[in-house]
Model the fold of this input.
Amino acid sequence: MKKLLCLLLMLALALSATAAFADGLSGELTIASRYTGVQGEAFESIIEGFKAENPGVKVENQTFTDNYEDVMKVNMSGKQLPDVFMTHGWSIMRYKEYLLPLNDEPWAKDIVPGLFGSIMDTDGKIYVLPNTNAMTGVLVQNELLKELGLEIPKTVEEFLHCCQVAKEKGYIGVYCAGKDTRSPAYILNLMAPSFLLNSADAAEIGASLQNGSFDWNKWAAVNEFLMQLKDNGYMNVDCATADTANMSETLVAKESLFIFQRSSVLIEAWDIDPEADLGFIPMPAKDASDEPYLVGGESQAFGIWKDSKNIEAAKAFLAYMARPENIKLISEVCGEAPGLQGVEVDSGNLTPWFEAWANTKVQPWFDRVYLPSGMWAIMRDTGSGLIGGETTIEKAGETMKANYDKLRSQQ
Done:
């Protein structure tokens, strides 16, 4: 009798589980991102949490690093994308035609208003869940800055002076990890607003960039800044070949004063030495008539392929990611502000810097607003070519113009 009762109980439990499984989500999701290291571990923990709540959904987590853009280009050309994928700042300009509008999702009302400029199209549609809001400045070895008797530079002239003093004392002014061509491109991209948009005729220049009438002779000033760093010996000697893995170490060791990179490098540095006196400062303005600025906008964001066969499961995954505890986790491991309102983030050593620059003007990522999709790759090529001695300021400008015209005509 007891055996029969046990069997009946087991059968009831099995039927209950089957019914629950049948009522829940099912299907398969492919998720693509660029997360690695600590960020990759955090993202994997979110995926595992989602799977635990939705056992009927199989999830394939695809992680790419430097070749993410190439993989996505192949996917777009074949019209076969992952169900959920990271848009890494390009939800509107590059991926919009492949993405599902998400305005009606419950978390959409909580998006930080300042992000709409980079994630909303002219029709008022949004296509991504923005996990974080990138607030990027120049990374600084603050203790070294003080030891050299320097103040935070507010203009390009003051910034170059800091680099000169650092050089004279045997330090690196700006560390550039040129093995990854994004490193010199970051300098061009982050400083472009200083020379082109942070001035009295910013509106006119911005409009000309967007309508195709921009005078590309003006771009020479951006290239010249990069070459001033290289030619004056303000960069590391191996700037064209250095590895990004060394960026955090060179800050901790007080070998370098500045780095043009995201705040995630600071997080890695504090993992090495939690007491290191590091931080970030606004981009220097062209001159005293302008003001320093931060660069911000869409960063850690995910969208849904509009032709996915698992849209309901994909929406459920975004909803799971949008939970405060998950937004908090991604924001903290990436060293960025949350993309949704109402999420309290422990930014650790970054907190006083976020507070210090809370009222600083924010410029959008230059290439994402003012250049056609595809120009980031051209900036990587020209920036790398400049510091590697493979091109000149004039030729790099001509390359930018030729590709700008070509890509605009295609889009």
User: Anything to note?
Assistant: The chain is about 45% helix and 15% strand.
